[in-house]
Automatic annotation (TrEMBL):
Residues 100-197 form the Copper amine oxidase-like N-terminal domain. The keyword ATP-binding does not apply. It comes from Sedimentibacter hydroxybenzoicus DSM 7310. It holds the Pfam family Cu_amine_oxidN1. This is Copper amine oxidase-like N-terminal domain-containing protein. It comes from the Bacteria. Gene3D superfamilies: Copper amine oxidase-like, N-terminal domain.
C-alpha cells in the first residue's frame, strides 16, 4: 500500500475515532489494497471516547467488498490493555482499523496475520482453499501448514505447534509465530508488561 494514501486514510479514521460523539461518521472512499505496514512508530490502537449517553463510540469503514459498515470501538484504557504489539527487526506492525487484522493472543501464543508474517520474514505464500493448506517458501526452505491442525511439515520433516494452531478470524488467516521463528532460527522475546512480541534475525 502507498504510505501516503495510508496516512490519509488513517487521518480520516482518526477524525472519527477521536471525535467520539457518534453523530458523524467518516468513510475512507479510496480502495485499500493492503491492511498493514511496518514503521518505527509505536502503533496507537483504534479507540473512541464514549458518547455522552455512555454508549461506545463508532467509526465508519468500507470493507474490501466496498460495503460501508460501522465498527464499535473500545475506550482508550481498554484498547491499550488488549493491544498486542509485534516488533520485527526494529519495526512495529501497524494494521488498518476495522480490517480484522490486529494481532491477538490465543492459548498463550501470539497470532499474527499470515500476510504480515510473509512480508516480515520474506516468505512466498501459496494458499490452497480446498485443503485449507498454506505453503511458505523462503530460500530453499518449504513449510507446509493447515488451518486448525498442529502439524507442520518443514522440508518433509514433521514438527508440531505446541498450543495454538493456524486459524481464520475476521476473514484473515492468522499463524502462531513463535514456532515458525524457531524453525527459521529467529530470536523471539516477549515483554509481558507491554504485551510486545519482538523478533530479530
Amino acid at each position: 500500500m502507498n504510505i501516503k494514501r495510508f496516512i490519509a486514510i488513517t487521518a480520516l479514521v482518526a477524525t472519527a475515532v477521536f471525535a467520539g460523539t457518534g453523530m458523524y461518521t467518516a468513510y475512507a472512499e479510496e480502495e485499500r489494497t493492503e491492511y498493514f505496514f511496518w514503521s518505527d512508530a509505536l502503533p496507537i490502537p483504534a479507540y473512541a471516547t464514549p458518547n455522552e449517553d455512555g454508549t461506545p463510540g463508532k467509526i465508519g469503514i468500507i470493507n474490501e467488498n466496498g460495503e460501508k459498515t460501522e465498527l464499535t470501538l473500545p475506550d482508550y484504557e481498554e484498547a491499550i490493555k488488549n493491544r498486542v504489539l509485534v516488533l520485527v527487526n526494529g519495526k512495529y506492525l501497524h494494521t488498518v482499523a476495522g480490517s480484522g487484522a490486529d494481532p491477538f493472543i490465543e492459548d498463550g501464543s501470539t497470532m499474527i496475520p499470515l500476510r504480515a508474517i510473509a512480508d516480515a520474514f520474506g516468505f512466498e505464500v501459496e494458499w490452497e482453499e480446498s485443503e485449507e493448506k498454506i505453503t511458505l517458501t523462503r530460500d530453499s526452505k518449504t513449510i507446509i501448514l493447515y488451518i486448525g491442525k498442529p502439524e507442520i511439515s518443514v522440508d518433509g520433516d514433521t514438527v508440531y505447534f505446541e498450543n495454538a494452531v493456524p486459524l481464520i478470524k475476521n476473514d484473515r488467516t492468522f499463524l502462531p509465530v513463535r514456532k515458525l521463528a524457531e524453525i527459521l532460527d529467529i530470536k523471539v522475546e516477549w515483554d509481558d508488561d507491554t504485551r510486545t512480541a519482538a523478533f530479530s534475525e
